[in-house]
User: What shape does this take?
Amino acid sequence: MGHVTEPVDRRRRYGGAGAPVHAAGGGAAAIKRGVSWSERGRILRVGVVTAGLLASAATTSAASAQSGPAASAQSGPAATTSLASAQSGAAASAPASAGLSVTSSSTLYLPKPTGSHPIGTTSLYLKDTSRPDPWVPSVEFRELMVSLWYPAKSPGRKRAPYMTAKESELLLKSGEITSVPPDTLSKTRTNAFTDTDPAGRKHGLPLVVLSPGHTKPRTELTALAEELASRGYVVAAIDHTYENVATTFPDGRVATCVTCEIKKNPAWWEKLAKSRAADVSFVLDQLTGSQAKWKGARLVDTSRIAMAGHSAGGASTIAAMLKDSRIRAGIDIDGTTEVRFPDSGLARPFLFLGKPATYTPGQGDAAATWERDWKQLNGWKRWLLVTGAEHTSFTDLGVLADQIGVDLGADIPGVRAMDITRRYVAAFFDLHLRKKSQPLLDKPSTRYPEVKHCSPETRTCR
Assistant: This one.
């Protein structure tokens, strides 16, 4: 298994939107996922500043470790851009150090969830022996790591780590950052506790599957997962092996990013989405079948399963829903889609949630994919855009960037964007999995004026 290694190729360059930007040939030919081709310059800028965020977060964490308990670090997405990129011509308009105001007492943290339940979390190692790995055919089975968050009976004593020490090391190496301890990124403070007992009645909890962006670890959606778990959901976030910088297995092996080096085109992205759909169906089998792999599986209501994803993960939600009828509702968060609907369309509830720069109806190739899909959605549907958001605003990175003082190009504070993301995602699932009325989804809100409701038919948003 030659792609299960410890070191990451430090010659790689990654873009901020989750698509690889190879050093050879420049970023222009390599960027495409969750954004239009015309937005390549914006993505390079975000990726460059992300590198600065990682470096700053690592410096802050190291300083905090000297003054008190280690509680801060930066999420995986920040590590996927090389610092060398920050020195390139494409980075000239956005210095990685712009806006920094870090002190030794600074602490990075995820926002507290708003639900009433304490949160437990655990990780599962799953192996699908029915198929070879789609990216490394010599591996005769598909291995996956899945994080679960769930309402807990009581808080535990040990907060869950944001990632492993080895993943932290590989992410730092990927960013060519060697001036801090290699385990720096493993010290992020979260709001969940490790392996606490789940709370709930038998078949009483809805299940939500989360899928991250390409090159991103499942940890980038931790704040969203914690919010849903605090509201009484079981949440399963999948690391799609060989599609991100590092996936660590229980025996210590680390799978690196094979897909980062593959030349991309629309057909390839369609393959990725369908591969992820197979991952999702397998995970659902393992969580809800007669030989379920999680001790709390009896709490899951198999009639109330849904999915959401960011970027490539959002696009994969459509593929998963088309493949698996158990998924009753879905959300695409800022992801350009490639998988085509059958003539019959899809009659289950669906939400598009994104940024105006890419997904305003009638403006650009990426928005056109949503417009194409919109016509095939025959059930409840909404198209919502968050004014001022950037691609990273819907993930943990937006929150952490603001805490450090790094400008990622968003015109909305990270904590505000996360509040909006969590509120609207939770409202969607509460409506369609719990049948609770959600007026928030029916019209513009005075509480969230940044959120625009769009009508693709008239190409207007209000």
Observations:
- The radius of gyration is 20 Å.
